[in-house]
Amino acid sequence: MENSLTFDISIDEMEIFLEDVNECLQAMENGLLHLEQQHDTETLNSIFRAAHTLKALAGTVGHHQMADLTHTLENIFDEMREAGLSPTQAVADELFAVVDVLRILRDEIVNRQAGGIDVAKLIARLRALKDGNEEQDYAPETSPLGPDWLTPEQALQVEDLSEAGQTILEIEVRTAAETFAPAARLYQVAIALMEAGQVVAQQPVLNALTDGDERMWLILATQSEPDDIKEILSEIEDLAEFDVQPYFLQSPLPEEQEKEVITPSPTLSIEKDRATVSGNSQVSGSSLIKAESTVRISVERLDTLMNLVGELVTNRTRLVQIEDMLRGQFGQEGEVGSLSEMVPHFSHVIDQLQEEVMRARMLPIASLFNKFPRLVRDVARIAGKKVKLVIEGEATELDRAIVHAIGDPLIHLLRNAVDHGLETPEARRAAGKSPTGSIRLTAASVEGQIVITIADDGQGINPGKIRQAALNHNLFSEEELAQLTEDEIIELIFQPNLSTAAKVTEMSGRGVGLDVVRTNVEKLSGSVVVTGKPGEGTTFQITLPLTLALVQTMLVTVHNNLYAVPVTSINGALYLSEATINTVKGKPALDWQGKATVPLLDLRQFFSRPHSTAKLSNGSKSSVVLVSWGKHRVGLVVDKIIGQQEIVVKSLSPLVGHIPGVSGATILGDGRIALIVDIPSLINAAIRAQRAV
Amino acid sequence: MARIMVVDDAQFMRVRVGKLLAKHGYDVVEAENGEEAVQNYRLINPDAVLMDITMPLKDGLTALAEIRDYDPQAKVIMLTALGQQSMVLQAMQAGAKDFLVKPYEPERMMKAIQKTLG
């Protein structure tokens, strides 16, 4: 049975609701992280405010457990504020856990499904944290109120006013049992009565009202009738009863006299309120004056927009080609001349349109990086490490789809850095380092790509350990390993099933490892490389495209089919006839400007029928496109290089299935289809072929 | 039609209250903290103000005092939450006309506004 929950929130309200809630949660988390480092009143104030706002948000949509929990938090923060204390580590742990629980409760509102949290128990635990500093229960004030306290002056005043024709009324009010701020209500009563006449005597007097006061007694001289006064009082909220009687100075009322007691009917008003609640969610805020400077737009719509712009961009290329051809054929005369004038302008507008749409999809990576201080703290706590996380470049913007997708790989790398990269404080001291390890997380935009680095100053990667692990897991033979350079050995940490962790820890279990990180990064058309020296730390560098939607490619032909090679991975190109080809281990390899020997992969062979034995033949236009991925380089042999073109990436239909070496397809302006080559898988194929000898 | 300024740091609360007020035919102005509230009050002179107490930059009590300083006739209704009893009392003593406790019951809110507007 599904346990479905209902909340008072409509779908169109959900997004801003979540925005507000998430802001509060983030503020609390950041605040707690900061307080762990140093005490700071302003931070305490801000987390108090966050808890407070969250309470109101939760209460408004009717998530009472969430409201109760945040109320408890608010009290704790308030007490810390009063006492000038920061949370101890144990308390901070509890509070971080509460923030996590609040996220689950928030999700309950989204999913309308119970998250299985025992909130009452958690609240009880939090209350216990407050060291017996129980919440104050204020008992109703029972001290007698009444006319016994009229001072001689007041008695004289009453007499005068009465003689002047005023009605003298004795008024007693009591607030309802559950009233939120009874004293404030009483204050309101006194103010309302002052407007209706002259208050001669009052218990308690206005400026003596204190929290918890629930009753008030007054002597009022007024022109109004008792019924008018009752009317005024009935408009004030939260009054359980009020009693308005003519007051006679000389003959106080006998106690037995029947008093008229009016009790507002609570049931009626509650039912009315319900009726209003259910009807209020349809209203538009048309009369809101504050001008909205932003408009929300769904990601799907942005994607569609981007796709359309992509079509324009590819058609633009075709248009330029046609214009060029016409000009060659008919010269600059007449219509062709006008076309030639129009095309550059048209191109320029499309460029701008493309840039604007791209920009609309951009998100600062801060939205992701913000989550990491907490993560690093938690991992460090469990792993017994001391860590200082430095974040730079969080304002760097990239496509929101990439921001979302890169989260998991980064989390994995950060965990690894804390758990395996950094040494324990003791080990660091022994090695002559500061006991606190450092992790730098940076993002920067470099030549149209985004580079994210995670650098720790820990123990670094030990090639010997990796070599041993590779042997232990039977991934490579002794001979194979002997051929690898130190860099290549280090690269092996991206191999599936290779874990060098000395022990399985709570954070990084065995099995899922850096290979998943690499796979996920490559899915984003990105690459990841690792560098480092034993004892000096490890650096992971992830390079990502700014956007996934549009790619600058080089078009090539293989067997008269078009293929698109992403320009970001191209290092160069040359005619095969001009290339120096050597044979390395029986396989053809390219001598790259005398600097490096690069394995060749003949795409004419790769993309032909399996087991084809076609020889590497130097056709007149055959070319080599040198591509790189991480630290690896491969020369791709193709029939012909056509030229550069920006393309819109379309994924292949599942009906087509997975084609080795192909990551997607695109439709060009002239309607032809080009397949986008998958550089990582081609490079892997080339490396495998090299080793297979 | 009367113009009401809604002051709350949570956008959701402003929108929620704004909708309710709009439905009842009020013009709504928003402010997201006490500082903005005081500025907007001077600019727009709303007929009534619904003011949250706990806000960044300038809290509701300070904003109430400054608004009442500027306009002794200002009609301010405080928006409060559980735990703020003493602040409500302070607010009433500082000239607030009424107060509402979150979560708001729409009926009560409209009643308080109508009463305050007189």
Account of the protein in words:
- The complex is a heterodimer of chains A (693) and B (118).
- Chain A has 693 residues and is α+β, with helices and mostly antiparallel strands.
- Helix content of chain A is 44%, strand content 22%.
- Chain A has 21 helices and 22 strands.
- In chain A, the strands form five sheets. In chain A, strands 14-18-19-17-16-15 form a six-stranded mixed β-sheet. In chain A, strands 6-8-9-11-10 form a five-stranded mixed β-sheet. Chain A has a five-stranded mixed β-sheet with strand order 20-12-13-22-21.
- In chain A, helix 1 runs antiparallel to helix 2 and helix 2 packs antiparallel against helix 3.
- The longest helix of chain A has 32 residues.
- The relative contact order of chain A is 0.06.
- About 10% of the residues of chain A have low confidence.
- Chain B has 118 residues and is α/β, with parallel strands linked by helices.
- Chain B has a single domain, classed as Rossmann fold, CATH 3.40.50.2300.
- In chain B, 47% of the residues lie in helices and 20% in strands.
- Chain B contains five helices and five strands.
- In chain B, strands 2-1-3-4-5 form a five-stranded parallel β-sheet, sandwiched between helices.
- Chain B is globular and about 30 Å long.
- The mean pLDDT of chain B is 90.
- The chains are: A alpha+beta (693), B alpha/beta (118).
- Chains A and B meet through helix 1, helix 2, helix 3, helix 7 and helix 9 of A and helix 1, strand 2, helix 4, strand 5 and helix 5 of B.
